[in-house]
Amino acid sequence: MTVGIEYYVLLSAALFCIGLFGVLTRRNALMFLMSVEIMLNAANINLIAFAFYHGNLSGQVFALFTMALAAAEVAVGLGIILVLYRNFRDVDVTVPSAMRW
Amino acid sequence: MVGAFEFAPAIALLPLAAFVVALVFGNGMPKKGAYAGILATAGSLLLSLWMLATVAGGEVYNEPLYDWAIGDEITFHFGILIDPLSALMLVIVSLVALLVHIFSLGYMNAEGETGLPRYYAELGLFTFSMLAFVLADNLLMAFMFFELVGLCSYLLIGFWFRTRSAPSAAKKAFLVTRFGDYFFLIGVVAIGATFGTLTFAGDASFVNEAQSAIDAGETFHGFGAETWVTILGLLVLGGVIGKSAQFPLHTWLPDAMEGPTTVSALIHAATMVAAGVYLVARMFGFYALSPTALAIIAFVGGFTALFAATMGVVKDDIKQVLAYSTISQYGYMMLGLGVGGYVAGVFHLMNHAFFKALLFLGAGAVIILMHHEQDMWKMGGLKDKAPVTYYTFLAGALALAGIVPFSGFWSKDEILYDAIILGLEEPIFLVAYSMGLLAVFFTGFYTFRMVFLTFHGKPRSEAARDPHPVGMNVKIPLIVLGVLALLAGVVNLAPVGKIAGMDIMFLEYWLDGQYTEGMTGLTYSEYSDTAGLDTTYIAGSQTITLLIAGALALGLALAGAIVAHVLYNVPEPVPHTENLGAAREVLRSNYYQDEVQVWIAQGLAMPTARMADRFDQSVIDGVVNGVSSVSLFGSGGMKRLQTGVVTNYAALIVLGFIALVVGLGVYGGWFV
Amino acid sequence: MNEWIAIGALALVGLLIPLGMMAVSYLLRPSVPETSKRATYESGEIPTGGTRIRFNIQYYMVALLFLVFDIETVLLFPWAVIYRPALESGEVTLLEVLGPMLVFVAILLVGLAWAWRNGAVQWATSPRQVEPEADRP
Amino acid sequence: MAVLEMPELTALAPPMILALTALVLFTYDSINPRSTNRPVIAGVAAVGSLASLAVAVWFILAGVGTPVAEGGNGVFDLFEGQLIVDQMALFFMIIVGVVTALVSIASYDYLRDHAYQAEYYSLVLLAATGMSTMAASNSLVTIFISLELASLPSFALVAILKSNRGSVEAGLKYFLIGALSSAIFVYGISLVYGATGHMQLDAIADNLGAAEEMNGLLGIGVLMLIGGFAYKTASVPFHFWAPEAYEGAPAPIAAFLSSASKAAGFVIAFRVFTTAFPLDVMQTLGIDWSLVFIVLAIVTMTVGNFAAATQNNVKRMLAYSSVGHAGYALIGLAGLTVDGGELVLGAAMMHLLVYGFMNTGAFLFVALAEYWGVGRTFEDYNGLSKQAPIACVALAVFMFSLAGIPPFGGFWSKYFLFTGALEAASANPWLLAVAAALVINSALSLYYYSRLVKAVWIEDPVLERESLSQPTGLYAAIVVAAVMTVLILPGFGPVADAAIGAAGAIIP
């Protein structure tokens, strides 16, 4: 017995929206980053579900790549958040707003 | 073998070189560049004479030299056309230019003027432009050099730019002629657009195209071919009227006296003013296609001749008198051309070039004598103190007045003769003729009034009692021109020839291409055939007509001279202008010509311009400024989107993305 | 649907057992509020400072390195899965199968060497010795 | 998974040279940590990028990427179509190579007294590797990986001035928007994969018929892909990072990002939309993406140019102008029609090439100004021509070329874009609006570009300043960029031919 593909899509869409909600509301840079990770993982759910649905492996392999790149992104992101903290003594993403208009 | 014509471009290029040399090295050269100009114009003269001889030997030259814009429909090029007319004109122009250069040594250098390199450079450029204009083989090239001539006259009239009057006179000359040139330019474009060619001569000339269009009965823009040709011809005529100072665009010429007298000589005799009439002669074949255009030319010419002559009567400034005489004489030429007297018009152009250059240079000499005094009422009695100046000036005056046997008589007589024989066939031309005839009287009067006031009687000022001596470089040009003024008439002694049955009408044969083998299209006889003007003689006899016409003209001229003699050849002449009564003020004020033009400018043009300006200021600028302020305001709004807070960016990105999804989704029907 | 019932029952039981134990404990225990009970427990020592202390930067560095290299190993799995079958099929040579992964690992090694040489894995004895390092302009 | 194909792999030499150079620099830095031996480090980077450029130019001249039928060496198809080396790939590898070389040379002076020398150059080269690979990517997998390879070093580069608050702020914003965008992009990929079952672009195109009942899913996926491209190319609405990132980043990095990164973003967009989503099929599915690009092109150029018009900070003005130019290049996609469009697509490619020179040059001039320390606003630039006439002539060339004034290269590419849009307007009248927006925005852009030229050449300096030094590397890069901006005029025939040929090759 298999679960219909549409449920997976709904699950991933829900996850994506949760992540997006976090991106839009969280002011802490780390939470922002985590929200983005949630969005990426929503995509991963889709990929794996569709790989199963279509019966080919490219989706699953691509999910591996996505995870690796997400990790790399987090690495770079943490570095940037670190210097953000050093310069602004805060990890609030709305604080650095000197450059505008 | 290199033919003479290979050197044709050099005729024009030599003065151009002189221009460059005088401009660049003038300050370091002896006589500030005068010698460069003299050498160049002398070279041009020699080459021109060679051309003349070659043309006389039976060759014509019509070659495009350089294509500078090649289109599908039409090709613009520079080229050279040397036929009897242009060869003759080349000689006249280069000769007068040479003499003016020589005279300038005495007039400008000896008087210690400043800015001489500029003067000689501009003279060189002026000569170059005119020679290139004469050489032009197509209308566009002619137009370009026509404009260059105008520019040079502007520069030279305004030579003494530190005075108040010279720059304004220069501007006036420039603007008034430019007004005419505006029509000329439209004419050039229209001719090019209509016929697809702008060349004067050859099988593919616009003259031939127009001819065949008329023959084929084509229509252009709803006009018949002949009407269209008339319109085109009149458009070009606009430029001619401006340049040749014909009514109503003549007002700039008297003011042009503000330039050095040598420049006046050049402008009046050989370059600027002559350019207009030369252009009519150059495209006479085109005008010959349209009797209407010819009639208008004749009337403009006749009227201008009379009109200007009457104004010349009351002038006090020697150069002013000469200026009005120039206008009047060019009126004669236009009259001559307008009545189909191509030879007569060109003949008068040639004679006038000589005697008017002579008169102006003579006037220049007088001005030197008088320590730069130009008012004739302060002169007098110069006859004995400056005999060379006097006798040469007198020769010029006799030629101008048209007294036999001086050159002016023969050409003016021929013009009037051509006018009367046409007028007898078509009485309307008698009006033009009578205006021309009447002008003869006034010409005789003002010419001798000028001579008597200047040279006869007692000196009326300190300067006149103790004149400044003049040198050889002044006298030589005067003598050369004096001889020419006396003798130039022999090239076409038409009345004598016709009465006596002798073949001595050399100029007519010359212009008819009889010395030139295989020349077609540009000849007098072909023009006459094209124009197809019928003529009638008085009592059916050519001889009687000739004699009556000649006698009338000579008689009126002598009458004018005699009146002048009676009134002014007295030791203490007085201005008899009061006797004119109310007419005096009208004449003095040049028939209020300037006032009318000023009124046109201020009363009509200024309000129009002001309205346009208001429109420009309010509507156009308003729109433009509005656009720019809206842009800048929009710019302010655009950049406010960039709040600097990254969360807002994320929100805006999501919103924008949702807008795209909804938009494309609705459009593409995903939700159905 | 049957399997789902079993899973559901298991989840239910799994939730009920801890909740039940906590509920029983809540009912049975005595309630004696005292401030020392709410203090941070530091192995019997008297606590110094709050619980929210700043960790040494080095933890982040090691964590980052671990994260990256750990995830890279994920990429080795697909390769490992096909390695033997590919060799046994005989269509490809050893170099062709092994080469790409060796290149991949070599690139990672370059990165690791760089991180090592730049002091990422050098454990500092005190934060004050590390700070000037990290604050290099 | 991957089968090694040695001879074909050499077709990927341009990105591989870049990657190798980056590794060499890492190795050098590992052996010799914190080296500040600038000549060696910058030299290696410059040589590497120039070598990559040279190889790409050689390839395109030798006919690599031209189909055998047309007398070339054939299109190289690697790893079962995951990567492809055709004319367009080489064309964009050239753009990336040019910009990387210019930036490497210019950074030699810019980075004096700066730590992280080797890291800086190796990050630049890694990003360039990513961009160069993007040009050759022919599958959503490779596109995403190379895009991230280009992005991640860029984040670090923007924030590399660790104690400069502007740089950090710029890096943070760039990173956060980048992370969000790549999440959206990956999700888009997953949806497209879901709808078609494939990642390889040609396979996607073959399986579009199967996506009929999932056209909504596919449509959202396509729009998410557009979002990813828009982020990379700094197009509306994903452009918000650009002004800040360019303003805060070190000027050579701003040059690098705004020229090379933008071009790389466009090449994947070109390839995905011409190969994977043929317009005729997509229109029957109700996903007319050319409309989206029409809207984006108009909005992007308008937003960019209008926002640039009233800036006081030169670098920020250039940043917004860069957004505006993304709008111009988007015309290349907006002007695609069912039965053609290689002219307009080729014009967009030409524009990106010319832009690679003129925009890089303009940002490098800003780098020069930062090197001198004269300040950031227009007023601070007043009268610079007296101290540095050569650089200011070059600046005038860049500005007028950016504004699209003849006879500079920028005029020609914009002119081709305009005629291409008009040509396509016969099939899609909306392109008339695009063409009109192009003209209006170009006119507006002249205002602020000439303002900078006026400041430099006409205005008198506000403060007296001492004579300015002439850093060799920066000057060389600026002069080369200016010369190329001018020289591209006589060379425009071949460039146009190459671009239109490359565009024609990928249009089905």
Automatic annotation (TrEMBL), chain A:
GO terms for biological process: ATP synthesis coupled electron transport. It is a multi-pass membrane protein. It is found in: Membrane. Pfam families: Oxidored_q2. The chain crosses the membrane at residues 6-24, 31-55, 61-85. Coiled coil: none annotated. Keywords: Membrane, Oxidoreductase, Transmembrane, Transmembrane helix, Transport. Its EC number is 1.6.5.9. One of its GO terms (molecular function) is NADH dehydrogenase (quinone) (non-electrogenic) activity. GO terms for cellular component: NADH dehydrogenase complex. InterPro entries: NADH_UbQ_OxRdtase_chain4L/K, NUOK/Mnh_C1-like. Belongs to the complex I subunit 4L family. This is NADH-quinone oxidoreductase subunit NuoK. The gene is nuoK.
UniProtKB/TrEMBL annotation, chain B:
One of its GO terms (cellular component) is membrane. It is a multi-pass membrane protein. GO terms for molecular function: NADH dehydrogenase (ubiquinone) activity; NADH dehydrogenase activity. Keywords: Membrane, Transmembrane, Transmembrane helix. Its main location: membrane. Residues 136-421 form the NADH:quinone oxidoreductase/Mrp antiporter transmembrane domain. InterPro entries: NADHpl_OxRdtase_5_subgr, ND/Mrp_TM, NU5C-like, Proton_antipo_N. This is NADH-quinone oxidoreductase subunit L. It comes from Natronoglomus mannanivorans. The gene is nuoL.
From TrEMBL, chain C:
Its main location: membrane. Pfam families: Oxidored_q4. The keyword Lipid metabolism does not apply. It is found in: Membrane. The keyword Cytoplasm does not apply. Keywords: Membrane, Transmembrane, Transmembrane helix, Transport. The chain crosses the membrane at residues 6-28, 59-82, 94-116. Belongs to the complex I subunit 3 family. This is NADH-quinone oxidoreductase subunit A. It comes from Natronoglomus mannanivorans.
From TrEMBL, chain D:
One of its GO terms (molecular function) is NADH dehydrogenase (ubiquinone) activity. It comes from the Archaea. GO terms for biological process: ATP synthesis coupled electron transport. GO terms for cellular component: membrane. Keywords: Membrane, Transmembrane, Transmembrane helix. Residues 137-436 form the NADH:quinone oxidoreductase/Mrp antiporter transmembrane domain. Signal peptide: none annotated. It is a multi-pass membrane protein. The chain crosses the membrane at residues 12-28, 40-68, 88-108, 120-137, 143-162, 174-196, 216-241, 253-277, 289-310, 317-338, 344-369, 390-409, 429-449, 473-492. The keyword Transmembrane applies. It is found in: Membrane. This is NADH-quinone oxidoreductase subunit N.
